[in-house]
Every structure is written in C-alpha cells, then in structure tokens.
Specification:
Strand content: under 5%
Distance between the termini: 122 Å
Number of strands: 0
Radius of gyration: 40 Å
Number of domains: 2
Structural class: mainly alpha
Helix content: over 70%
Number of helices: 20
Length: about 450
C-alpha cells in the first residue's frame, strides 16, 4: 500500500515538473520572440533605432534554440550588424572588428530560407534594404587586406560573401557603389598572387575567365604564365588562344606570350608560324619579327647542315634539304629594309652570308674542272661581300673585348681566303692591338 502511494506521488511530481518545464520553455520562447519583435519595432516604429538595444536583443534571440532557426532572426541580425559596420559612431559596438563579417554571414543564412519564411516580421523588406550596405562593408574589408602578406583567407572570406550575396541585390545598388562579383573574384586572385598560392590563383582566374562579360587580358596571360612555368606548354598556349578569341584587340600581346612559350620549349616550327602571323598582322613595320624569324630559319639550316655532314662522314646518304640560307637571309634583309640601323640584323646578315659561303666551299671540294672554278668564284665573291658588311659592324664600335677579337680574327681569315693580303695585314694588326689592350686591362 505504501509502495503504491509512493509511486502515485512520484508520477504526479513528474507530470507537474514536466508541465512547469514546458511552461518555462514556452515562456522563454515567447520572451525571445518578443525581443525579436522589439528589434523589428526599433527599425519600423522608431525614427532613430537604438542599435545598442537592438544588438543586445538580436544576440539573445540568435543564441536561443527556439528562435535561432527562424529566417527573421537572421534577417534582422544582418540588418543590425550592417548598421554597426557602416556607422563610425557605432564602432564601439564592433568588438573585434567583425560586424561586417557577422552581417554577411547572417544575410547568407537568411536568404537560404524559403521565401515565405523570409517575409515574416518585415525581415525581407529590411534585409533587401540593408543588403547593399552590407555588400559594400564586406567588400571594403576584403579590399583592405588585399596585398597584405598572409591575408588571403581574410580576403577570400569577405569576397566570397560578396559573391554569394550579390544575386540577392535585385536593384543592383551595390553595383552602383562599384561592388561587383568580378571585382570580388579579382581581389581574391590578387590576394592569392600576393601569398604565392598558385593553385588558388587558378581557381579564381578561371572563375573570372568564365564570366562572359569580363574582359581582362591579364587573366589569360597569368594562367598561361602559370602553366608555362610548370612546363605544361600546350595548356599555356590554349589559354592564350582563348584570350585572343575573347579579346581580339589584345591579339598582339597574346601572340607575344605565345612566341615566348615556343622559344622556351624550342619549338621552331611553331615559332615560324607565330612570327609569320605577327608579320602578316603588321607587314610594313615588323623588323623585329622578320629578324626573329630569320634567326629561326638560320638555326634550322645550320642544324640541317651539321646533320648532313655527319651522315656523309658516316658513309650514309644525307637527307635532302628542307631549309635554305636564303630563307633567313631574306628575313634579315627585310628587317634591315624596315630599320636600316638594326645592328643585330645587319650582323646576322653577314654571318648567314659567311655560312652560305662556307657551305659552298664544302660543296666545291667535290667538284672538278669548270665546276670547281665556278664555285671558287662564287665563294670568293661571297667572302668579299661578307668582309664589307663586317667592316660596317666593326666601325659601329658595338663589338667589344673578346667579341671584337673574334670579329677581327674572322675578318683576317676571310681576307686570307680571298687572297687580299692588304686587308689580311690590316686586320691582323688590329687584332694584335686589341688583344694587347684587353690583356693589359685584365
């Protein structure tokens, strides 16, 4: 009997405690909801909201599990903290300088709720009104960290908030304040670049590249630079091709980068194509590209001659020629025509003529009779032309020290080959004088 009485009392106590507990939590929820309405009233009813009080209330509402899952809670939190972030007079409320961050996070959560929930307690109306200011505040916080070493994550945090929230700014008020998704992504890239975070650079450069209305050649050039440094040349070239297609007015800049890549990987056939493309784009004023293409043709022919000579010495039949000294010579002369004072072009013209003469000299050794005499005459005539051009090079005074000695040695040798003793003695004397000067200066 006593046991039954004890059990009944225990049950009644439990039910009473449960009812009291439910009442307590209901009262708590009601109190928190009242605080949320108080925040609403501050902005709806008061001409000058008490932000201090609103912050106190919204912080309590946000922490309470009964109201922290309401869209209105996050909408009003965004409004309150935007007010703090954008009013210098309220800086004392921004402990830790995180008001813009708090506002951005609150609005991101708010806009994740269904539309019907956003519309309660005037939250949507005020969120839409304060959102542009929040975007500007977050953007400015991000910009202030761009270029500061070690601040990439801060820039990324603020600018990704901007990226997420921009679509909710239906009237594009933030855009009128010079805040855009493109600018936010560009800032993240710059921060990644500053911190040497190449993989992160790629992520945001590609995001920028994929925006149809974004035209910035630097994006494509940097992506190409990254992949060229990794020796992924085809990928580097592909980004430059995309840049040329999207921003045709920058084609020459993209082409120059492509040329540098082909030089880096020693791709002669591609270089000829690129130099030809550059020449065709500006045929009347392209001495540099004519000279550069001449160098490629010159090198290709020189390498071909070496290969042919090696085959002959091995008793093999040399492969037929694919390149000719005349190709390089033609480009050097075109460069000189467009720029008569182009030293490198004029020097290389003399060198390629000398190489041509040396080639004919080697061929002559296989000839007899009249053919031998014919080749001898042609070789001597070429050597005489080369001497005249090298004399111009010497007189410019641009060849110094060992380069000058090598030039004089060559001129002395050529004079001997054509039987011009007067010139041979002249260049021998100059050679000895310059050699003595160089030795005394060391």
């Amino acid at each position: 009997m006593l046991n039954q009485l004890y059990t009944d009392m225990k049950s009644r106590f439990f039910v009473t405690a449960l009812l009291l507990s439910l009442c307590f939590y209901q009262n708590q929820a009601t109190a928190q909801l009242k605080k949320l309405k108080n925040v609403n009233n501050q902005f709806v009813m008061e001409e000058s909201p008490d932000i201090n009080l609103a912050k106190y209330d919204i912080d309590l509402v946000t922490r309470n599990p009964e109201t922290s899952n309401m869209a209105a809670t996050w909408g009003w939190r965004g409004v309150v903290y935007t007010s703090i972030a954008t009013d210098p007079k309220l800086s004392y409320l921004d402990t830790g300088n995180i008001a813009a961050k708090t506002a951005g996070e609150a609005f991101i959560k708010f806009y994740s709720y269904p539309a019907e929930e956003q519309d309660r307690l005037d939250a949507l109306t005020f969120a839409n009104e304060y959102l542009p200011s929040c975007l500007v505040a977050c953007y400015n916080m991000g910009v202030s960290a761009v270029g500061v070493k070690g601040r990439f994550e801060d820039v990324k945090m603020y600018m990704e908030m901007v990226e997420v929230l921009i679509p909710h700014d239906k009237e594009q008020k933030a855009l009128a304040a010079n805040v855009s998704r493109e600018k936010a992504l560009y800032a993240i890239w710059r921060a990644a670049y500053s911190d040497s975070l190449v993989d992160s650079e790629i992520v945001y450069l590609e995001k920028l590249m994929n925006i149809p209305t974004y035209f910035n050649a630097d994006i494509y050039l940097r992506l190409s630079e990254i992949y060229a440094a990794r020796k992924e040349y085809d990928k580097a070239i592909s980004y430059l091709d995309k840049g040329k297609e999207k921003i045709p007015q920058k084609s020459n800049e993209f082409l120059n980068y492509q040329i540098n890549i082909e030089i880096d990987r020693n791709n002669s056939s591609a270089l000829i194509t690129k130099f030809t493309e550059a020449i065709e784009a500006n045929p009347d004023n392209n001495a540099v590209y004519h000279y550069s293409r001449g160098v490629v043709y010159h090198n290709l022919k020189s390498d071909e001659v070496k290969t042919q000579e090696k085959a002959s010495k091995a008793g093999q039949k040399p492969a037929p020629s694919k390149y000719f000294f005349s190709q390089g010579l033609s480009d050097y002369r075109k460069a000189i025509e467009q720029d008569p004072g182009y030293f490198d072009a004029r020097y290389n013209e003399a060198v390629i003529l000398n190489d041509s003469a040396a080639y004919l000299y080697a061929v002559r050794s296989k000839m007899t009779g009249a053919e031998y005499d014919k080749y001898t005459l042609a070789v001597n005539e070429l050597y005489a032309v080369v001497l005249g051009k090298l004399e111009w090079v010497r007189e410019t005074g641009l060849k110094k020290d060992n380069e000058l000695l090598e030039l004089l040695r060559l001129m002395r040798s050529l004079s001997a080959k054509i039987g011009d003793d007067e010139r041979r003695i002249k260049y021998d004397t100059l050679y000895k004088e310059e050699k003595k000067k160089l030795e005394s200066s060391q």
